[in-house]
Amino acid sequence: MVRPGLAACAQRLRRIRRNRPPDGDGVAVLAAPTYGVSVDFDTYERDLWDGRADAYQSGFARMTAWSVGPLLDAAAVTSGTRVLDAGTGPGIVSREAVRRGADVIALDADPGMAATARANVPGLDVREAILPDLPLPDASFDAVVGNFVINHVSRPEEAVRQFARVLRPGGKLALTCWEMPPSGALALVSEALEEAGVPVPDDIPTPPFAELGQTGPFGGLLRDAGFADGEAARLRWLHEVDPEDWWTTGALARIGVNGVIVSRQDPPTVDKIKVAYDRLAARYATSGGRIALPANALLATGTR
Ligand SMILES: C[S@@+](CC[C@H](N)C(=O)[O-])C[C@H]1O[C@@H](n2cnc3c(N)ncnc32)[C@H](O)[C@@H]1O
């Protein structure tokens, strides 16, 4: 049975999609959604990831791969650990957990991401579920990990309570998110948009993590859900990348909020944004024509 909330969400999504051109094979064919002022965060998120698995894995996932090791270490994932990888995306956390000998279940809200994770990690048990819904039994995991998913959830407090429910007593939770306000790698395209004079549209919903993406509130989120030792620390690294690749797989491929905004612009405006992007990206120049982008994230951990 389809729940009323999900049916309404699907109906709004169909309305959004009616106004979009179909996706093509390459990243140059853009979907340019507009949402209407009352779109809820979940509907926006489902549209954000729809059809983006390939672009995400060839762009942003190369940056988020850096925190996979610290995340799994924080959750004490080793051989035999029963792990839930929430918001698996293309499965990079699950792949490493499986390599460590863990027993992994992955989940993602997006069917395309779930299919990509299945293809990338043969034999992986991948479920489709929209957090905070977590259709898994109580106390069935030793570790729950989520690499950059909690910042995409409309009700993060309830999601963390659900993570507590599925953990056994003494089990570990580890979650990453981007530090707010956005900086470094996360801010490059938004700075270019600003320099090109493109206003921030008012129909894109504000994520709960605009407030929670700092060490104090992120640690507090875990403590409020019953993780008495919950705390968050900064993670810092440099993501080295070809600036043209970053432009193509991020901004032009409609990844993230800045990608959505770029996708709405006409070609002359996109050219203007690109000129600003090139100039701003040069601040991060390193050897061989590449750029080293500061990645500024947070890692929250807690024990059930
Ligand atoms: C930024 S990607 C992170 C993917 C992967 N964990 C990584 O490290 O690269 C966020 C993922 O979370 C998924 N997601 C977003 N909201 C979700 C929700 N409410 N429930 C489950 N998955 C969600 C998206 O479909 C996407 O695959």
Key attributes of the depicted protein:
single chain; 304 residues; alpha/beta; Rossmann fold; seven-stranded mixed sheet; 41% helix; globular; disordered N terminus; binds S-adenosylmethionine
Q: Identify the CATH homologous superfamily.
A: Vaccinia Virus protein VP39
Estimate nothing, just give the exact number of structural domains. 1
The CATH topology? Rossmann fold
| SSE order | HHHHHEHEHEEHEHHHEHHHE
- Mind telling me the CATH class? Alpha Beta
Described by strand count, sense and barrel closure, the largest sheet is: 7 strands, mixed
Number of helices: 14
- Identify every distinct bound molecule in the structure, by name, code or SMILES: S-adenosylmethionine
Overall form: globular
Quantity of strands, as a count: 7
The percent range for strand residues is 15-25%
From the alpha-carbon coordinates, what is the Rg to the nearest angstrom? 19 Å
Report what the structure shows.
The structure is a single chain. With 304 residues, this protein is α/β, with parallel strands linked by helices. The protein has helices at residues 4-18, 41-49, 53-58, 60-64, 68-74, 92-99, 111-120, 156-166, 188-195, 209-212, 215-224, 243-251, 256-263, 267-281, and strands spanning 82-86, 103-108, 125-128, 141-147, 167-178, 231-241, 291-303. It has one domain (4-10, 28-303): 3-Layer(aba) Sandwich (Rossmann fold). A seven-stranded mixed sheet has the order 3-2-1-4-5-7-6. β4, α8 (156-166) and β5 (167-178) form a beta-alpha-beta unit. The longest helix has 15 residues, at 4-18. The chain is globular and about 55 Å long. Mean pLDDT is 89; it is low at 1-31. Bound molecules: S-adenosylmethionine. Residues 45, 49, 61, 64, 87-89, 92-93, 108-110, 113, 130-131, 147-149, 152-153 line the site of S-adenosylmethionine.
